[in-house]
TrEMBL record:
Family stated for the protein in its record: Belongs to the oxygen-dependent FAD-linked oxidoreductase family.
Pfam families reported for this sequence: BBE, FAD_binding_4
Cited PROSITE patterns: FAD_PCMH
Keyword NAD in record: no
Protein name as catalogued: FAD-binding PCMH-type domain-containing protein
């Protein structure tokens, strides 16, 4: 059974063509202040590096400096790369996640490039949302050269990996981008690993050293060659760099810990341009910060060594419980079912449930509307279906005995290893649209202490059509013992059971006034979602990799009590903010103006 597709809230759509150049000169504040150290340099203004300097950088990085046009520019006759045939191909692939991850500048959700050049000739096209130059880095030395150049010439610096980024850190105007997608070198350590400069430290068990650009499907496939697996995400294009630095939730996490908890060693390029090895014996503050403190902040991750686990056999289940959309008991039922999730996790069950709120009925061919829950569950390490069936049958029995007009189904499938489960159940990751997300981590009290409050929160949180209530934390996350004693993930993870998300999709209009209203409405709706879950669980927080970019009190929401230490490390290793993104540790000193320029506040 396939899960429901991502719900998209259509706010409006109008299309007006307004031709524009690929990289227009910024205006207002940027033009008047571009020579001052208060702002990063901008093109065609005093302080921007000369063509000779860019040519020298290109030589230093072995000819890997790119100046790519936006991929959608091929659909716009006003643009130099216009091609009718190429446009047809780009349009056909715009919703393909691999198309975006394979582009040096494109990202998976259009709004993070400010919708500035979509493959629609009826809309305007410019390069305002894209970096000006890209270093296609394949070695740490390439990364080092880019960092040194940006620092020396006051150029805004960003990092793009696969572009699978829900908070928009992978693209920015007037920037030099370090594209680490092709940093895919990998080494398997089948029996043990010894961290560099750690005297008499040998970590038993298999591990993988992989370049930051290695994506989930590649990491899973490589580890599978020795009958192991990484603790990884479900999306195929998710790359290790951003995933690891943000914490990395997984359907395997309740049984094996967060992905970041499995990290044994990292290699980074620091803001000062040093190539550093981080582990429990050297550069320990950065080792702590880079495991949960977020990407594009403390340096560029170039490789990571992760402990592997023997690939477990998997008993899987798909299930759904539904009722008519007009059933006033629907959210009473849903709140009770979701309240069972902490006990399921404690019993070794994890999974990806989704609450749906007034959607087309997938049972009767969309003739009616329904509310309910659908999902995939697993128990790793067993071929015993009763471990799932007994628990879910008890839930179904309670639902049928307590509420009227409920119906549902479940079935189980055995998989000989995790790779077999993943091949059938990966996340297809819909892309190529405008998407804003809100999320919250939910602990046992939030899920069980007040079912009335949970009912109200779930109803609000799923108002766009659906919301995830993923069981991706549990005993192993709570009891994790990362190398070095701890890492910087939000401490709330150590008592979380559910990672809940809600997304808002919207379309693009060629009318600036209408578009501004649509953008505002989308932000307001994600704010409504955030507030609903914050009211339910005020003392928790959110997973920074899948959250609202516009979260209030983001320092506490994403890092909690760890923020003060993270900020101190950031100020020490990057006093001039060579790396800046938002919402990221230490970003408070800068802001991006409406015209795209980055200036101090």
């Amino acid at each position: 059974m396939r899960l429901l597709c991502l719900a998209i809230v259509t706010l409006a759509r109008l299309a007006v063509a307004t031709p524009s150049s690929a990289h227009p000169q910024p205006h207002h504040r940027a033009v008047s202040n571009q020579t001052a150290p208060a702002c990063r340099a901008v093109p065609r203004a005093k302080g921007w590096p000369s063509a000779d300097l860019w040519a020298a950088l290109n030589k230093t990085v072995d000819g890997r400096l790119l100046q790519p046009a936006p991929p959608g520019a091929v659909c716009h006759p006003s643009q130099p790369t216009y091609s009718s045939a190429a446009c047809t191909a780009v349009q056909a692939n715009w919703t393909d996640e691999f198309f975006h991850s394979g582009s040096p500048v494109s990202v998976e959700w259009n709004n993070w490039t400010n919708d500035t050049c979509l493959p629609d000739p009826a809309l305007a096209c410019s390069g305002e949302g894209y970096p000006v130059y890209v270093v296609n880095a394949t070695t740490p030395q390439h990364v080092q050269a880019a960092v040194n150049f940006a620092r020396a010439h006051n150029v805004r610096l960003i990092v793009k990996n696969s572009g699978h980024d829900y908070v928009g850190r992978s693209s920015a105007p007037y920037a030099l981008s370090i594209w680490v997608h092709y940093m895919k070198n990998a080494t398997l350590h089948p029996t043990s690993f010894s961290p560099a400069r750690c005297t008499n430290v040998t970590i038993a068990g298999a591990s993988l050293t992989a370049g930051a650009g290695m994506q989930m499907l590649e990491a899973y496939a490589l580890a599978h060659t020795i009958n192991h697996t990484v603790i990884g995400g479900n999306g195929r294009t998710v790359a290790l760099g951003g995933f690891i630095t943000g914490a990395g939730h997984s359907i395997l996490a309740p049984q094996y810990g967060l992905a970041t908890d499995s990290v044994l060693q990292m290699e980074i390029v620091s803001p000062g341009g040093e190539i550093l090895t981080l582990n429990e014996c050297q550069n320990t503050d950065l080792f702590w910060a880079m495991r949960g403190g977020g990407g594009s902040t403390f340096g560029v991750l170039t490789s990571v060594t992760m402990q592997l686990i023997p690939s477990p056999q998997v008993m899987g289940m798909t299930f759904w419980i539904g009722t008519g959309a007009d059933n006033t008991q629907a959210f009473d039922m849903l709140a009770w079912v979701v309240s069972q999730f902490p006990d399921l996790a404690d019993d070794g069950i994890s999974g990806y449930p989704i609450v749906f709120n007034t959607v087309k009925n997938f049972i009767d061919g969309s003739h009616t509307m329904i509310k309910g829950i659908i999902g995939k569950l697993i128990v790793p390490g067993t071929n015993n279906a009763s471990l799932l069936v007994d628990r879910m049958q008890g839930i179904f029995d309670h639902v049928n005995a307590t509420w009227t007009a409920m119906y549902g189904h479940y079935d189980t499938t055995y998989y000989p290893d995790f790779q077999a489960w993943y091949a059938e159940n990966y996340d297809p990751s819909p892309t190529g649209h405008e998407n804003l997300m809100s999320s919250r981590l939910l602990d046992r009290p939030a899920l069980t202490s007040d079912l009335g409050a949970l009912k109200l929160a779930l109803a609000k949180f799923s108002a766009a059509g659906q919301a995830t209530v993923y069981i991706v934390s549990g005993p192993a996350v709570h009891k994790a013992q990362p190398r070095g004693g701890s890492n910087s993930v939000l401490p709330v993870w150590r008592r979380t059971y559910v990672h809940a998300t809600a997304s808002v999709g919207y379309e693009v209009t060629g009318n600036a006034t209408i578009q501004a209203a649509m953008n505002h409405n989308a932000k307001e709706l994600t704010g409504f979602f955030s507030a609903a879950m914050r009211d339910l669980a005020p003392g928790t927080g959110a997973y920074m990799n899948e959250a609202s970019k516009y979260e209030t009190d983001w320092q506490t929401t994403f890092w909690g009590d760890n923020y003060a230490r993270l900020l101190a490390i950031k100020r020490k290793v990057d006093p001039t903010d060579v790396f800046w993104c938002t919402p990221c540790v230490g970003s408070e000193r800068w802001a991006q103006d409406d015209d795209g320029s980055l200036c101090r506040v």
